[in-house]
Every structure is written in C-alpha cells, then in structure tokens.
Design a protein that fits this description.
This protein has 472 residues and is α/β, with parallel strands linked by helices. It has 17 helices and 19 strands. The chain is elongated, with a radius of gyration of 23 Å. The relative contact order is 0.10.
C-alpha cells in the first residue's frame, strides 16, 4: 500500500485517517499489509532497516527505509530522502506547492516498489492512493513489467478526492522514468499536461472511490472535475467502497476527551458533554441554553464544505432557535466570517479557528446536531462520527453523505445547493428536536449503524482477490 500521509505519522486530511486504519483492519482479516509513505520532517517513528540507491530521471539518491509496526500484521515503511521530504510542509509551504512534487512522489512510488522487490516475494497486490501514488500502477506496467519479482503484480488505485489531480508540465516526462508512449490519452496526458491521477486510473486493474455515490458522481460533468470521461471509460472496473471510522478512537462509551461517557442505553452523559462544550466556547449554559439545540460544525473553511451557503445566511442563522459551535481553519474570508458572527452573538455562536483534536471529540459528543452542507463530499467522516455519538447530522445529499445519512431516519438531508434549501432543512431539524421521543428515535437509529473499518476492509479484500485472480 502506498500513500502520502497516514496516522499516526503525518496528516493534513482524511487520507491519513484511511491509511492509518485500513492496514490494521486488513490484518484482522488475515492479510499482511505493508504501508509505504514518506518520512517527513519531525517523524521520529521507525527503526532503520536499509538504505539503497534509487535513481529518478537520472538523479540518484540514497534512500533510507525505516520500519514501524502498526499492528500484528500491518507495518509502515517510512521512506527517508531528506532532500525531498525533510521540509516545512507535506506538499508545499505558504499555500504554494513545491515545484519538484513530481520528483518527490515519483521517488515515493519507486521506493515502495523497490522495497517490495527487496523482499523477494511478489506482492499479491499494490494498492496506491490518490495522485501522489499514481505513478506506481504506471511503473508496474512499464519500468517493472519484466522485473523478476514484480512482473505481473496487479494494482488497485483509490481516488479519495478527484479535485486533486497531480497536474504538471509535460516537460517532466523524461524526468519520471516513464516511456514517451505513456504521454497519451490512455496514459498520463491531460489537456497537454501530465496527470499522476490519470496515470493511476488508466494503469490500475481496479479503481475505487471512497463511497458508492461518489463513484457514480465522478462519472458526471457536475462532479467529475474534467475526469468524467476518463472514469466512464473504466466504469466496469470502478467500485465505490465507503470509508470506515476508527470505532476504538471514536466511541462515546470510552472517549477520553468526554467529561462523561454514554451509550445508546443511557444518553445522560451527552448533556454533561453539552454543558462542558458550551463552557469551552464561552456560551451561555443556563437551563434555557441547555434546552436550546446546539449545532456543531468541524470543517475546512472552504467552498467545497458549503461555507459559501452558510455565509449567505449570515443574517438568518443567528435568529434561529439554536446555538452554534464551529471549529476549523481555511480561507481567511470564512475565518473572518465566523469571528465576526461570534463577536456579534457571543451568547449563541462560538468559533475556534485552528484544529484541536480533543475539542473535535467534545463537539461530536456535546452537540445535538452536526452540520455538513458540502458542495461535494467524496466520503466524509464526521457524519459517521456524529451518528455514533447520537449527534444528528444535517447534510447535503452528495457522495458519502448520501450513502450514510437517511432523511428522517438518521438525520436530515437536502439536495439543492442553495442557502434556502439549507435553511429549510435546519428548520425541519429544529422542529424535530422539539419532539423528544422522535429525536431519541433519530439518535438511537444512528447509533445502531455499522461504519467500522472491518466492514470496509472486507470489500477491499474482495477487490484484491478479484485482481489477483485476473491480473491485467
């Protein structure tokens, strides 16, 4: 398995959660999983095991390998190439991508395959994730096609977010150790540039996305980000597998970040968490405030997450019979929006700019509702955390949100991407909150859902077994 970030080693987004949880889940199903990722600045995990020369585009590098045990049958191999990975950020600095990202992640793919070759036994499958690993399936079909160990190894490529495509100038081609013939519509070429993402899609035996609905959406002009035709061509090999959640880390019965634990059988601890959450945000928590529904939001503050819809309701949200707590960071205009709103309504609206893992858990536990009005959402994890914590999701019906939240049964869903649709859905949710028995039904039905990684891992195993029986 190859990826650019994974918990507990490095994280910028949901990819790290997936790659931190999927290998151990595969191990529980009897598979030996090796995850290869960069050894970024500040990563101290792992024991040094080897160093070998690897050349990319004629530029040699001495690459070190550090091994860290993840679980009984899952191992992480951290690729140590300080010139490429010992930097301030994972992908760039000051919101600007590193100009040599093509070389950095070409080396990651090469290092992963070289490590596999050193073991002397052909892997059952190579599973590459997102554009940063997109060259791995390409290399298996070209540079390693006749390799004594790796020849014939099938690959699976997972798209976590189609909006990130690994687009680079075509003049990188000779520096990536791929033949010129791969610069084609069936290879890496995308409107005169090269796309690592397209390379992975075209070269892998199977392609997966992170929810069934998103697999359908990516084949449409609205959500396909220009890749809808590419994916329709591979439709027979495209499968949507919903991400799972770490049910040990996200468990209201033993979450160390909650002031009181609770379960579906006894929800009393949720009120304790709500009181603590209001206190942490400096909001009123008198009896009337405790009775008022509390809406939580944890999000990157960008258009994709529906922040433009929320901003359009700046004058109407504060007059709803609810309080709001928000945690996240992103575009300055949205950070400023929440700061201004919190300053205007200090008893009803609390905003914290940045990220705080303990506070994220407290929001999931203490809020009554969780808001995710996304423009698009390949999978989403917070709505699944919310279901598990008896925090009723209010979402737009796209991607994994559509697959996990059922209107009127486990949450509230709107379709049209408009401020009016969002506001109307919030009003429906608030009306339902006023019916305690109905609200408890919503909570309990959500808490019954199984979104564990073991379920998702079984679906990946089905794909692995299929491609290993019928390699391309």
């Amino acid at each position: 398995m190859i990826g650019s970030e994974a918990l507990p080693f490095a994280k910028t987004g949901g990819l790290a959660d997936v790659l931190g949880a999927l290998p151990p889940a595969l191990g529980r199903l009897g598979w030996d999983a090796t995850l290869v990722l960069p050894r970024y600045r500040g990563v101290r995990d792992g024991v040094f095991v080897d160093r070998i020369p690897i050349s990319v585009g004629g530029q040699p590098a001495k690459v070190g390998f550090f091994e860290a045990r993840v679980s009984d049958r899952a191992t992480a191999i951290l690729v140590d190439a300080p010139d490429l990975f010992d930097r301030d950020g994972l992908y760039g600095s000051e919101h600007v991508d590193y100009p040599d990202n093509p070389r950095r992640f070409a080396l990651l793919a090469r290092a992963a395959l070289e490590w596999a070759a050193l073991r002397g036994t052909r892997p059952t499958v190579v599973h590459a994730h997102d554009w940063q690993s997109g060259l791995a399936p390409v290399y298996l079909k070209t540079l390693y096609a006749g390799h004594p160990v790796l020849s014939g190894t099938p690959s699976v490529f997972t798209i976590h977010n189609l909006a990130y495509q690994g687009l680079f100038s075509a003049d990188w081609m000779p520096r990536l150790d791929v033949p010129a013939s791969v610069f084609s519509q069936e290879g890496l070429e995308f409107w005169g540039q090269i796309s690592f993402l397209k390379g992975g899609i075209n070269a892998a035996e199977a392609i997966t996305t992170v929810s069934p609905r998103y697999a359908e959406e990516t084949q449409t002009p609205e959500f396909g980000c220009g890749f809808d035709g590419v994916l329709r061509r591979r439709a027979a090999d495209l499968v949507g597998i919903l991400n799972g959640v770490d049910v040990d880390e996200w468990d209201p019965q033993r979450d160390p970040y909650l002031p009181a634990h609770y379960s579906a059988a006894d929800l009393a601890g949720k009120a304790v968490a709500k009181s603590e959450l209001l206190l942490r945000f400096g909001l009123a928590r008198d009896p009337s405030a405790m009775k008022r529904p509390l809406i939580g939001m944890i999000s990157r503050m960008v258009d994709q997450k529906g922040l433009d819809l929320v901003a359009a309701l700046a004058d109407r949200l504060p007059v709803l019979p609810a309080s709001f707590v928000v945690l996240g960071a992103g575009e300055p205009k949205y950070q400023d929006f929440w700061r201004r709103l919190a300053a205007r309504f200090p008893d009803r609206i609390g905003a914290r700019i940045g990220f705080d893992e303990p506070l994220a858990h407290l929001i999931e536990g203490g809020a009554d509702m969780f808001l995710m009005p996304s423009r698009f959402e390949p999978c989403g994890l917070n709505q699944m955390y919310s279901l598990r914590y008896g925090t009723v999701p209010v979402v737009r019906g796209v991607g994994g949100l559509f697959d996990t939240v059922r209107e009127g049964a486990t949450g509230f869903v709107f379709d049209q991407y408009t401020p009016e649709a969002l506001l109307e859905t919030l009003r429906r949710a608030l009306a339902a909150f006023g019916n305690p028995s109905k609200w408890r039904e919503l909570q309990l039905e959500g808490m019954k859902q199984d979104h564990s990684w073991d379920r998702s891992a079984r679906e990946y195993v089905t794909i692995y077994e299929k491609v290993s029986r019928n390699p391309g």
